[in-house]
Amino acid sequence: MNEFALLLAATLSAGTVLAIAALGLLINERAGIVNLGAEGMMLVAAIAGFATAVHTHNDWLAFAAGAAAGAVMAAAFGLLVIWLNTNQYATGLALSLFGTGFSAFVGIRYTQEKLAERPHFEVPGLADLPFVGPALFRQHPMVYLAVALMLGLAWFLYRSRAGLVLRAVGESPESAHALGYPVRRIRLAAVVAGGALCGVAGAYLSVIYTPLWVEGMTAGKGWIALALTTFATWRPARVLLGAYLFGGVTMLQFHLQGEGVQVASQFLTMLPYLATIVVLVLISRNPAWIRANMPASIGKPFFPGG
């Protein structure tokens, strides 16, 4: 039972990386923009956050640095695709490739660096409860902030006027423009916000979850986060559920290896990505359901006055 509690705790921690990044990408796609550069943004944010933590010994400054790095890269992407009308998919892939190479170059001197011992967090009065204490109430505050972010984003999208405008821009930018809304600026704001969240996820990965810097350390998590938005049919609560599902699959491979299960380690490493493919294949069997939930103008450029 205690091992299961620890596995559940590890699942929540692993899922937090995916959840924060996927919620950021959800904001982008609700505004009609597809950003395939999540992997690159997370890597640059990971080295920015790790370097900041090394020099300042302050995790929250590291998160701020990661958010800033992700936001800057997303702003560059936004200017290219929203104002210069470059292809969203090609520009996103270029951003991912750039982030992978740039982070590897900048991070060379940090590969041997180590952070001070990470602080342990507990929720007073709840952390000592049997099973649920170690499973749920001994997490880093960012784990709980991810849940709060999901709730806040759900309220924003479905209960606030600004969220309604954002969704309108993703559904029909022409109609939103005709009503006087600055479609391009709204899309840019959504892209920057999404990039900042991807940056926070990258910083959490290198500063808290690992904590160290290794070239290419995201290992495809940016792509899984991107797939999660489709898996969740663009709903914040489903994004969180999906993130924990994939986090659980990731942790299961380590648990099985620790238990000495006689399965090739390469196959166990494949599990999270295999699960991603299986889920997307199952979802794609019902394209009408996806179309009913997908923002109508996702991935489509907008030309004001055109």
From TrEMBL:
UniProt keyword annotations, A-Z: Cell membrane, Membrane, Transmembrane, Transmembrane helix
Main location, first listed in the record: membrane
TM region(s), chain numbering: 6-26, 33-54, 60-82, 89-110, 141-158, 188-207, 213-232, 239-257, 263-283
Taxonomic lineage: Bacteria, Pseudomonadati, Pseudomonadota, Betaproteobacteria, Burkholderiales
Organism: Sphaerotilus microaerophilus
Cellular compartment(s): Cell membrane
Topology of this chain in the membrane: Multi-pass membrane protein
Name recorded for this polypeptide: ABC transporter permease
Keyword Ribosomal protein in record: no
InterPro entries: ABC_transp_permease (IPR001851)
